[in-house]
Design brief:
alpha+beta, four-stranded antiparallel beta sheet, 2 helices, globular
């Protein structure tokens, strides 16, 4: 299992958390998503290394912005 933490800009509430989680959970290989709205932090556990572009696309689909720094390669 691989765990990466990303910074997501624009989240403000529980609804934001749900939207981001739902989109990231649709990415192939994602096992779980943990969102900390107050810290603008999203941690993704996956069975394979996710490309940053995959994560960015999911976050943007939810209506938010992926920003650095993050611990993904």
């Amino acid at each position: 299992m691989i765990e990466r933490t990303y910074t997501v800009v624009g989240m403000a509430c529980g609804h934001c958390e749900e939207l981001v989680s739902e989109e990231l959970e649709r990415v192939d290989g994602v096992l779980s998503v943990s969102v900390e709205v107050e810290l603008d932090r999203v941690t993704v556990s996956s069975e394979r290394e996710l490309a940053v572009g995959e994560v960015r696309a999911a976050v943007e689909q939810a209506g938010y912005e992926l920003a650095g720094p993050w611990d993904a390669p």
